[in-house]
Amino acid sequence: MAGPQTPHATGAPLPDDDAPIFEAVGGDWSDIAEEAARLGEERIVVNMGPQHPSTHGVLRLMLEIDGETVTEARAGVGYLHTGIEKNMEFRTWTQGVTFCTRMDYVAPLFTETAYCLAVERLLGITDDVPERAQAIRVLMMELNRISSHLVAIGTGGNELGATTIMTIGFTAREEILKVFELISGLRMNHAYIRPGGVAQDIPPGALDTVREALTAVRGYLKQLGDLMLANPIFKGRTVGVGHLSLAGAMALGITGPVLRSAGLPYDVRKAFPYCGYETYDFEVPTSTDADAYARTVLRLEECYQSIRIVEQAADRLQQMGPGPVMVGDKKIAWPAQLAIGADGMGNSLAHIKEIMGTSMEALIHHFKLVTEGFRVPAGQVWQTVEAARGELGVHLVSDGGTRPYRAHFRDPSFNNLQGVSLMCEGGQVADVVVAVAGLDPVLGGVDR
Amino acid sequence: MSDAEKKDAAEAAKAGSAPVGDQSADTPQSVTEAAHEGGSQNVPATSSPAGGPEVVDVRTGLFGVRGSGDTSGFGGLVRTVAMPGASPRPYGSWFDEVVDILAEVLDEQGVPFDHAVGAVVVDRGELTLHVAAEHLLTVCRALRDDQDLRFELGLGVSGAHFPHETGRELHAVYHLTSVTHSRRLRLEVAVPESDPHIPSSTPVYPGHDWHERETFDFFGIVFDGHPGLARIEMPDDWVGHPQRKDYPLGGIPVEYKGARVAPPDERRSYN
After folding, report:
1. Which residue has the higher pLDDT, B35 or B64?
2. CA of B271 to nearest chain A CA: how many angstroms apart?
3. How far is B214 from chain A (nearest CA, A)?
4. B249: chain A residues, CB-CB within 8 Å
5. How far B253 CA lies from chain A's nearest CA (Å)?
6. Are residues B152 and A372, on separate chains, in Cβ contact within 8 Å?
């Protein structure tokens, strides 16, 4: 055990009685080792991860096994902690989007939207956000839900040894990433949704691309369904595995597909609607089997529901025609009139001309807004959205300044990992992989 | 600025800025125009004649720079930071009902409501109950178990550090949701930095286990009765609690090709 005065987990190579002894420790490891030594039992403790191909990133599982049976399972996290929340306190409210999009990198648009909705509530401009911006947000989020579920199903299949599930899943996801790239310019880390609206309107022809992508994705989803749902090997590996009852899920605050697989149709889009979800027609699929198989089925069904929502959002955007995608208040709206210039990127020439040639006030204003940012009245808010993995909450505190006083994200992956013990203990070692894949944690979101 | 001066400034801000009258309880979402303009010392939307906005900090000067020998006059700027204070009745929406039922349930258990809940704050359509640390578990249990309250989903614990609120520097914030009634509320518990103990809410909401570990890790709030209060994000042997305001970000300058960029806590700040 490293002493309190030792800052690093590496020691001097030479033997020295006074030198502190360093060991690889962390999480609950020392507790487990001490208890094992005290009881004098012969127990096998397996460290699965943090570098293990089946743990969805740097998740560490400490498994105590008796033969092939897991008698105790604990999860250790923190290997990907980058201090995003602390960093956000040192950047403006708009720059915060660029940080929080890097938390859950498989479903970044949910984090962005939740954060922006929270900032808008602090500013009191929720009702001023243009309808077009809200429809674009819904479109992007639902596409993201599909792409995230495809990763969950694909990697889950890969971990069972079914590489085909993974290749189909990722091929289908590619269709959606192409849409993201067309609309936001990036395949991940978009920072596309901004306080007050979105960064840019969707480019011309984007809705056609969206519809084409949906047709393709629908085909891939059918392939996945055909491949998995009646497959005796897949069912043998997933039916009855990773069971988590409704009582257990509620007690542990587990939300999303895992909670719905236990039978409760709790979906933030229905319970506390945001971005106009109450005006879209969709269903919340549930199951009562509460196992890994039910979660796969639910994720596939949710993809089909998301397609329905995306179609409705696309139709609305088509009907609406061009319009503002950012609040009218120029003291908040980011002056991001982007256009492709001679150098391939940059601000629109018209905007540069205006601020550099005609209006000194506009130049000052642009400068102030971009460097200093806007002020947000003091107070705190709590905003949640239904992310792909469950209820994603944002707790923002403002002190009236131009930067968040405190930004906290309640990431569903972080919370849901608490269910690992309940889902894995008493099962086989091989089922741990299936159970964790059913929880679908993304470690970027867990550790932030 | 000495403590006495600071107190005077806080008092002055409190007296001069408390809006009276048009407190609209049925539209809690609205933020008052004055607050919105930003020129009004950032007095929050819901402040009441009863409590008034709660001043948590008084800042002077420009860009957060102190002792620079600035003669421009900007050093004389004073800005108070005030959080929304206690709200008067009626709170609006379903808030009155929940507060009444909670008071009733607490009374039945022999805990006077005034002892358990220090202030009821309604701001931006959200209900916050400031709960005394020693009564947190009783309040949580009442909120979860009573059929008319039924806040059965504990969504987590978050923290905030207000170093200028002497005696209640560390705040733990609990986010509760009622799936049954489609309601949300927030509990806030404030404890002094010198004695940062709050009873753990895990007996009522087991899902708060990791959230409390995280809040302990980042803020140093000790949750008594927690089954295993270890650090969760930072390494076990880490010194300090990184989300506290006196803990710098980075802390070392970045040097690149001879140029030096100061660590964020030494750069000028716009708050």
Report:
1. B64
2. 4
3. 10
4. 83, 86-87, 89-90
5. 15
6. no
- Asked whether residue A367 carries a pLDDT value surpassing 90, the answer given is no
Residue B100 and residue B218 share a domain: yes
Residue B230, domain member (yes or no) = no
Q: Domain span at residue B172?
A: 95-224
How many of the other CB atoms lie within 10 Å of CB of A166? 19
Option in A25, A406, A415 nearest B236 (CB): A25
Do residue B126 and residue A381 have CB atoms under 8 angstroms apart? yes
Q: Are residues B72 and B153 in the same domain?
A: no
CATH label of the domain that carries residue B201: 3.30.460.80
pLDDT at residue B8, rounded to an integer: 47
Domain boundary among the residues B224, B243, B260 is at B224
| pLDDT tens-place string over residues B66-89 | 666 666 666 677 888 888 888 888
Assess whether B103 and B201 both reside in one domain. yes
Structure-token pair, residue A216: 């393709």
Evaluate whether residue B258 is within a structural domain: no
Chain B CB contacts of A375 below 8 Å: 38, 42
pLDDT at A255: 93
Instruction: Please report the sign of the dihedral spanned by the C-alpha atoms of residue A390, residue A267, residue A113, residue A201.
Output: positive
Same domain, B113 and B28: no
In this complex, is the C-beta atom of A265 within 8 Å of any C-beta atom belonging to chain B?
Answer: no
- Closest partner residue to A250 among B126, B153, B270, by Cβ? B153
Residue A9 has pLDDT above 90, yes or no: no
Q: Which residue of B has its CA nearest to A373?
A: B270
What's the length of chain B? Answer: 271
The total number of structural domains in chain B stands at 2
Measured CA angle at A230 (ends A229, A232), to 5 deg: 115
Let me know whether B22 and B135 are in one domain: no
Q: Higher pLDDT residue, A210 or A57?
A: A210
Neighbour tally for B26: CB within 10 Å: 10
Q: Which A residues 67-126 touch B at CB under 8 Å?
A: 77-78, 81, 83, 85-87, 89-90, 121-124, 126
Q: If DSSP codes are grouped into helix, strand and coil, which group holds residue A383?
A: strand
CB-CB neighbors (< 8 A) of B124 in chain A: 121-122, 124, 379, 381
Q: Can you tell me the distance from the alpha carbon of A305 to that of B101, in angstroms, rounded to the nearest whole number?
A: 39
- Interatomic CA distance for residues A117 and B124, integer angstroms: 13
Contacts of A253 (CB under 8 A, 6+ apart): A415, A418, B153, B154, B155, B156, B205, B207, B208
Tell me, yes or no, whether B69 and B150 share the same domain. no
- CA–CA distance, A190 with A183 (Å, rounded to integer): 10
CB atoms within 10 A of CB A318: 11
B106 and B71, same domain (yes or no): no
CA distance A385 to chain B (A): 12
Please name each of the domains of chain A with its CATH number: 85-332+374-420+434-447 (1.10.645.10), 333-373 (no CATH)
| Least Cα separation, residue A356 to chain B (angstroms) | 25
Query: What ipTM score was computed for the predicted complex, to two decimals?
Result: 0.83
Size of interface A-B (CB pairs under 8 A): 163
pLDDT at residue A22, rounded to an integer: 55
Indicate whether B79 and B125 sit together in one domain: no
Mutation target vs B (from A86, A121, A422; most B CBs, 10 A cutoff): A86
pLDDT per position as a tens digit, B21-34? 333 334 444 443 33
Q: What is the pLDDT, as a whole number, of residue A41?
A: 63
| B42, B79 Cβ separation under 8 angstroms | yes
Contacts of A405 in chain B (CB under 8 A): 160
B237: in domain: no
Stretch 168-227 of chain A: residues touching chain B, C-beta under 8 Å:
none
User: Which residues 391-410 on chain A approach chain B with CB closer than 8 angstroms?
Assistant: 391, 393, 395, 397, 399-403, 405-406, 408, 410
Could you tell me the CA-to-CA distances from A82 to A25, A311, B192 in Å, in that order? 20, 37, 28
Please check whether residue B52 lies inside any domain of the structure.
Answer: yes
Spell out which residues of chain B touch residue A7, defining contact as CB-CB under 8 Å.
Answer: 237, 239
Residue with tokens 């020129």: B39
| C-alpha closest to that of B236 among A89, A443, A81, A57 | A81
